[in-house]
Amino acid sequence: MVLKSDWHIRFLTYQILSALAYIHGLGFAHGNVSPSSIHLSESLWACLNISEMSCLKEASHSASRKACCFAEECPCQEIYANFGLSTSMNWSTSFRRWWAGDLSNYEYLLLLNKLAGRRWGDHSFHMVMPWVIDFSVKPDENSDIGWRDLTKSKWRLAKGDEQLDFTYSSSEIPHHVSDECLSELAVCSYKARRLPLSVLRSAVRSVYEPNEYPSSMQRLYQWTPDECIPEFYCDPRIFTSLHSEMSDLALPSWTTSPEEFISIHRDALESDRVSRQIHHWIDITFGYKLSGEASVEAKNVMLPTSNLSTPKSTGRLQLFTKPHPMRHGVTPHSQYHGLKESCFRCQLQHESKEISSITNGSSHLDPKELLSGTRYLDNLETATLFCERTRYLDSVYNYQEEFLDYNCSLRSQLTDLSIIDTLENTNDATSVPSEFDLGCLLECFEADDNLSMGFQESLNWKQKSSYLGVCSDNHAKDIFSYGCILAELYLKRPLFDTVSFAAYKESGVLPGAIQELPPHVALLVEASIHRDWRRYF
C-alpha cells in the first residue's frame, strides 16, 4: 500500500495504536506486530490481524502443518501451511541456503513473494511463480525446445518487442508493462475449475461461459501474458473441475495424471537449467530491472498508478537494487519431492548414489575441479556482497524470542486467572479492582480500614499483580513494534535489520536513519523504542 501523504500515515498509525490499546486493555499483548499483520482497505481502514498474535500462532501451529500441499512429507509445510510463510524465516540465511542448493527454487521464490507483500487467498496479490516451460514437449535439459526464456518477462514474450516499443513511445506516460505481473483476472482464470461461479462472474466476466476458459495447459500458457501461480507446481487438484459445465483442465500429452504433471513441472522449476537462469526472472519481477535505465533496456517500465491522491496497493514491489546473483547449487530431487518411497526417480538416484560410493572409493583432484573451486570463491564473494547490501530485508519489528518464552507462561497464567475469576464470583462480599497496582491497594485500605481480606483473596491479588507486571513489559514491546513501523512509513525502508538491532540492543546505539525522520516523528519513534520500557508503565 502506497501512502501518498502525511495525513494518510497519521491516520494509519492512529488506528494501529487504537487496536493495540484495545488488545492491551483486555490484558493481552499482540507479540507479533509487523507490516504483514496490518491489513488495509481501499479507504485506508486498518485491521490488526489477531491470528498473528504469538499466543495464537503456536496453538494453531500443529494444526496448520496439516494444511499443506498434496504430499504428506512435503518440506514446504512450514511455508505453504496457513497460507503464509513462517515469520521466523530470515532472508539472508534463506538466500545463502538457496544459493548453495539447500533451499529449493520454489521455497526461495515463495519467500520473495512474502517479502513483496504477496499472499495466498488474495487474488489481487496472489503468490507469483515463473512459467519455465511452454508445455509443447516434455522438458529435457539436454534440449532447448520447450523452455521459456527467463531473461524476458512473460508480458514481453506474449506481446513482442515491437508492440512494447510502440506502447512506450506512443503513451502519454511511457511504459512497457502494466502495474501487475499477475492480475486477478489471470489468477481466477487459472483456478477457474476450483473457484465458485460467483467469483468467476465478478473477476473474469459477468456472464459465465465455461467454453471461454482455456481448456489445456498449453493453451493457457499461450493465452496469458501473466506469470504462473504456485498451485501449478504443488497442487494436482487444480486440474479437476468442480463445475459440471466446465471440463477438467487438459494435461499435456506427455503426462498421464495430475500428480505426474506436478512432479515433472516441479522438476523443471528445480532443474539445473532454470537454476542457472532464475536470477534473471528475479531481476525483472522483484529486482533492479523494475526501475531506472535497466527497466528501459529490459522493456520492463511499469505503468504508474493514475490517481496519486489515493493510497493504492502496487502489484510490483522492487526488493533489490543490484543484480541478483546466479545460483551456485541445485536442490536434489529427493530433497523437495514429498513422496520419496513411491517415486521412481528418487529410488534411482538413491541406488546410483550407493553404486557411486562403492566404485569411487578413492578420490583425486582434477584440474577442472581446481578451476571450478576458484570460480566458486568468486561467486561466493559476489553472493556475500549482495547479501550485505540487502540487509534491509532482514527487518526487525519485535523481540520474538522473548515473546515466545512469555507465551508459555501466559497461557498457564490465563488458566489460573480463569479459576480466580470463578472464585471471586462466588464471594460478592469482597470486590477487588480489575486494575492492580500499589495505588489500588492503598485506596482499598483507605476506603475501609476494617476490610477483611483473607489469605485466598490476598493470593489472588498477588497473582494478578504479578501477571500485570509481566504484561506491561510485553505491551511495551508492542509499542516498540509500533515505533519501527512508524519510522518505516516515513523512511520507506525498515528502521532495524538484524545487525543494527543487535547493536542497539547491546549498546543503545540508535540507527542513523532516525536522523532522516521529521523532528516530531523522530521524537515519537525514539520514545517508542526506548530501551527503558518500564518508565512508560
UniProtKB/TrEMBL annotation:
<dbReference type="InterPro" id="IPR000409">
    <property type="entry name" value="BEACH_dom"/>
</dbReference>
<feature type="domain" description="BEACH">
    <location>
        <begin position="83"/>
        <end position="353"/>
    </location>
</feature>
<dbReference type="Pfam" id="PF02138">
    <property type="entry name" value="Beach"/>
</dbReference>
<dbReference type="InterPro" id="IPR036372">
    <property type="entry name" value="BEACH_dom_sf"/>
</dbReference>
<protein>
    <recommendedName>
        <fullName>BEACH domain-containing protein</fullName>
    </recommendedName>
</protein>
<dbReference type="InterPro" id="IPR011009">
    <property type="entry name" value="Kinase-like_dom_sf"/>
</dbReference>
<dbReference type="InterPro" id="IPR052651">
    <property type="entry name" value="WDR81"/>
</dbReference>
